[in-house]
Specification:
heterotrimer, A mainly alpha, B alpha+beta, C mainly alpha, A: mainly alpha, 11 helices, B: alpha+beta, 4-stranded mixed sheet, 18 helices
Amino acid sequence: MTSVILQQPTEAKAARKANRGFIHGLITNKKAMTGMAIMLVFIGLALAAPLLFPGDPSRITGMASLEPDGEHWLGTTAKGQDVLALTIHGARSSLLVGLTVGVASTFIGILVGLASAYFGKFIDEGLSLLTNVFLLLPGLPLLVILAAFLPPGLGTVILVLTVTGWAGSARVLRSQALSIRSKDFVAAAVVSGERAGRIMFREILPNMASIVMGTLLACVIYGIGAQAGLEFLGLGDVSTVSWGNNLFWAGNEGALLTGSWWVFIPSGFCIALVAFALALINYAVDEVTNPRLRKIRKPATTERSAAQ
Amino acid sequence: MTQTRFFKSARIAAAGLAVGAMLLTGCAATGNKTGGTDAAANASAFLTIPREDMGTFVQNFNPFAPTVNPMVQQSIYESLLVFNPAQGNTVPWLATDWKAADDGKSITFTLRDGVKWSDGQPFVAGDVAYTFELQKKLKGGYEYLDGVTAQGNKVTFNFNKPWSPALYDVGQLSILPKHIWSALADPEKDANAKPVGTGPYTEVDNFQAQSFVLKKNPNYWQPEKQKIAGIKMLAFAGNDGANLAAANGDVDWAPQYIPNIEKTFVSKDKDHRHYWFPPTGAMINWQLNTTKAPFNDADVRKALSMAVDREQVTKIGMSGYAQPADCTGLSGNYETWKNSQVKDNCTWTNHDVQKANDLLDKAGYPKGPDGKRTLKDGKPFEFKISVGATSSDWLSVANVISQNLAEVGVTAKVDSPDWAAVVAGYETGNFDSGIVWSVNDPSPYKYFNTTMGSATVKPVGTKTSDNYHRFGDPKADALLAQFAATTDQSKQKDIANKLQEEYNDAAPLVPLFSGPEWGAYNDSHFTGWPTQDNPYATLSVRAPSTVLVLTSLEPRK
Amino acid sequence: MRFILRRLGFYLIAFWASITLNFLLPRFMPGDPVSRMFARSQDRMQPEQLEALRKLLGVDDRPIWEQYAGYLQNVLTGQMGVSITRFPTPVTEVISSQIGWTLLLGGTALVIAAVVGNLLGILAAWRRGGAVDSALPPLLVFIGSFPYFWLAMGALYLFGVMLGWFPIRHAFTDGLEPAFTSEFIGDVAAHLVLPALTIVLVSIGGWMLGMRNTMIATNSEDYITMAEAKGLRPGRIMLRYAARNAMLPSVTSFGMGLGFVVGGALLTEVVFAYPGVGYQLLNAVQGLDYPLMQGLFLTITAAVLLANFLVDILYVRLDPRVRSN
């Protein structure tokens, strides 16, 4: 009896210690630093956009389709809008939607996953069914229908993307929570009478930190990419400036057909860079939590040398 | 050892795949970049036309289908007469002559001799009578039509009231063969996969989901005008694909909207590529919901109209392709009907920010200290402009208008959900304002009726499919009744002039620009296209006048 | 066996829930298909004809419970009704005539991405720190981060228009009659290259990384060390021991991927004008074509469920631990 009770605090303490090591591991990881650096640059630019490019970047003027030059570093669109201003202002909406969708999806996923894993039996069956039904719903058509039905605006886009995105994270988090649920320290906590909420959020959740982080990053990437896809089809909020909308207008104005590559490339590139930065951070998290995935610094001369 | 062996085999496999892929592509017939100067090649070539809104074709050539296949009503079936909007003239087609009765309650058409259906059967008056019977039964409409009688080579349409606009309504309906359609169990649902028509190209060949061919009608009544070998339709899922094909020289006719047409299309082959956008499309209006204040005030409507810079709207929103509207409210389709007095003394469709401000001040909508106007109840002067998200050119138009209005202290926000939602709002009268099309019949009667006729006004909440802005003018009603009653051209013109004066007074809508009839072509394979100098038809592929182009084109020698 | 029965039971419930949602969703959209058609045709349709059209298309005013009951009955008997936007073609005909191309495109791309991605992943894990492991994952992930349509349009313009190496639209050259000849098959293959290539590029990074990470975890297992100690050839160990075990998560992903092939091909078909069912889905949704929408959703749901079920059965065969549970 006493050994069981004694076991619990040391395991929990070890978990907390692991978290500190985790953060330290991230900071020294090259991939993580590169990824975070890129993200900080974008976030900084997005916040500073009204200072760098005051006024309305989508104001229609007559200086159409100018090539990049000293005054317009990335040229202008067919409606005479400065492409660099559009790109940097676009970061605001795209990052906002991406981050909100990511956080919301992950949050719902955590709630559903933890509840499923902790309560088990009927709640688990019910929530699993719900999760799987949402996973089975055809994503893009659902997006199109919801986007058409609800009033246009960023709120709708965020809602629509969260509704279609939460199921994936819920599934992953549930399986992870289940495996932690079966561990002894959780059983000890249950027996010692801790409240359900406390067990879920203060025992199980901290041990899932790296998976949650990975899920969060994946959801943010999903949010940014899906928003761009929706807007490209013309179903997003056409009145905001965002990377997806920039590409939508580029297509409608025949940017590639007229050879105005400078209109088409920047927004796509930015989406790729941000997604890539987040993916880098994700892999860094994987590496730090799973030492086997870490980059091998010494050449593998001692392993399998006989095979050569 | 094994690892290097593995990699070696992997490399060989990859090389093999690459070579295999190249061989396969070599086998395939790619690249239609051959020049179009070979006369023999042109003589056997098909007139290639893209269709940008269907994605895939279904082998259904039934003219009663909700979405009719391309070329059904233009090349397979024909009508009694053809109206050419580019010049305003009417070309006799299956009918050689027509005469309206003096009381305006009937029209008699004399049918052309020697016309045969593509299966060899003769075209008779009974076919015309049967077509209208079937049309009324299946689709409704034609409420003014009492009956159609056939006698020898004459067909008489009897109306239950004097109805002069009927001429074009009955004259441009596709005529169907009675001997085929009366034998069908379910004419509405029949796929009509191998159609029988009187048109120049009726024989379906090589039907695929992505393209189909129509070959010559062996029994056509104008064989000397069947100079091209056939028509090939290509399916695309959007403007982008169709524009790419046009830019690449893979199609001869490009009737879709092409952005920046000089750079995207013409510049690739200046000698052979041309375009012409006659302003014969419907008038595109900015409609204000006249059941809502302040839009029920004609002065407010006129002031808002003066705030709009139509030059900027057409230049930026429509790439300069459209013609700004004037106070007659009529599009270029009605050029011959325009009241020159109204047109010349026009004021409220000119861009005049000063006058707009003055008029709004006078009407009782003053500017606040922040430069923004307020309504009579103190609320800010704000409203929405609705437009469907997929119409990017009209979206740009709405954005320009919104920018223009800011200059007179009015805030307009562009609202762009899917067209389904927008139209649903229009139909029930639940909208502030929106960019909307209008009717474009050969006769201006319907246009004025749906613009300011009380008969078309339905209360808010009741669904309607025209006169969304719900404006009715009793003076206009009287004039419209007179117009319908007379078949005398000069009398009609007089009444139309008066209608335009009434329109100028009441300003029921804010007319923006004449919708251009898009049309571009590549004449490296075929010549004989209509142009500004030779406007025998427009370059539309979905209009009744299309058949005029099909029977005028010939292969380049 | 019990495992399979449980899964089957679950799938049936999920199927019912999905089709009910598929029934309800389109009806939440404002408007009705006839008004939508009228708006699209703008000035070419006569307003008087709309009522007759409504009657013809069976755009119903019945109470929603009646409609639902009728819908369930139709689903169970396999009748999907007549499409509204492509009237009077039956929905089954619309879908069956075009689904082949979507399956060809999606299936080919999926298979290539999975096979090549997994092979690369195995290689990267086996040669840790080597050229493949260091350079390829970041590169492929970067390429895969680009929005799909951006990559597709770029590839279309670069390889199709400017360089002219590949055809720029459709599934085969217009004018050719489909037949099982080498000429036709070669033509189809040529038209398949660009669309499939873009899909492969976008997804291959994920496959590679997934396999690599699983392989690394597997490599550290005792039985691998045992096999090495016993002197088995490294290639044999890599493929017949490590990869076989590391493959299990990939099989699950492949199954899910198969199911989503139909819904996911939309952007490809729009950009490359490929005559498949994906674009029809967008068209049906925007045109409020209830029967076609329902038919397509049903097809996608059934495909996903079937694929998942097959994967579950396959999993049972591949992983004995599941059997003994």
